[in-house]
Amino acid sequence: MICYIMCILLWIAYLWLDCMVVAYAFEPRKDSVRQAGIILGLMAAQLPVAALKFLFNDNVLVRYGTMIAVGIVTVAYAAVFLKGTFGQKVLFMVCEYLIAMLAEMLSIGILNKYMEQKPQLSYYTPTMVLLLSVVLTVTAIFFLIFLVVWKKIVEKESFDVSIIIVFSVFPVSQLLMITAINEQVFQNLTLHTGCILTAAILGSVADGVLLYTLLRQQQLQELKLRLSEVQSTWEIAENHYHEIENRREEFAKIRHDMRNQQMVLQELLHQGEYEKAEKMLETLTDTVAATTEYLYCGDPVFNAIMGETERACREHKIDFQYDLEIPQKLKLDPVAVCSILSNLTRNAVAAAEMTERQEAFLSVKAAVKGDYLHICVENSRAKKLPGRPRRKGYGLEILHDLVERNHGQIDVQPGEGSFRVDVTVENF
């Protein structure tokens, strides 16, 4: 009976390990949902079918039928609660099954000398407890390696490979210890046998806890990096906004001084000092040209960023088009307006710059409808960038954070040779 209880505990630990790997392979659809909640929910969804597999494991038909059923339940659960395409989730489950089978075969090979002594295994034997412990340990190692490879190749995310080295030291030492145990220990169920089985179970569970801790630490490290990127962008946008305001104040002072200079110019003309008047007129013309602000809409921050965007497009030979329906100053925080719009246009200009000049374009549309501001930015983009290393970028993630912070929504629509982003935020 003691061995049976131990097998149940190991089975629950294996179920938790399987659900944990799935939860960390894909991001939750809702940012407010934590990985722990995803793991517990998936365990609850798998539990009925997985329990049948545990109870009728000797029946080959039931065993493989429940394995397929668990895969279907997992894919369905992931499709509802986790990000990623349906094809990716099916591929992940197939790979996970193959890895689990490989881990089981390797575990049987490690315990070959015990398996020869007990060809008929049951949940009531110490050999089965030891076998499940080794299966759980080997599977944990394989799952971690698979998860790292999946993140790097499929998800295109950075993942610290050093955690494999940190993690592998403990389970590998367990396997070496198990292989060194004499099979005579399991001929009779003694206190010594119980201590060995208890140590094997605790070690296997500790493997899962250690793996969870390392994955959680890796996730926190990625979140810190994203937060740093967002804070950096926010500071740049805030400085940008203050520069715009300072420049507007400076322009206002220059215009005020020009009124006095205009009076001096009229007096020179009245006195017949035409040469002095002509030179002064040239100076005033240059000053006026330097202080001219292109008016795109009724919001000053929008005007400033649109002006900079148009100058950048003109410099890089990008066809620039816009349609703005913003009749008055926005109620939204000016720093937020600056952050969102500057991120949208800066990323769009950088992408359009990579396309051929005759195809390069950038379109900005914006309108205020009721209590909401709608912005649509569409740009050309190169279909292929030879020689440029692919890396994980945080531009869109930063935009998502900015939009979410201002109670809005963002929709990204990548197309063939183009890229479109629609943003809606509250304007009150």
TrEMBL record:
GO terms of molecular function: identical protein binding; kinase activity
Annotated transmembrane regions: 6-26, 38-56, 62-83, 90-111, 123-149, 161-179, 191-215
Xref: InterPro entries: HATPase_C_sf, NatK-like_C
Keywords of this entry: Kinase, Membrane, Transferase, Transmembrane, Transmembrane helix
Pfam family, one: HATPase_c_5
Domain Sensor histidine kinase NatK-like C-terminal: 333-425
PANTHER family in alphabetical order: TWO-COMPONENT SENSOR HISTIDINE KINASE
Designated name of the protein: Sensor histidine kinase
Lineage: Bacteria, Bacillati, Bacillota, Clostridia, Lachnospirales
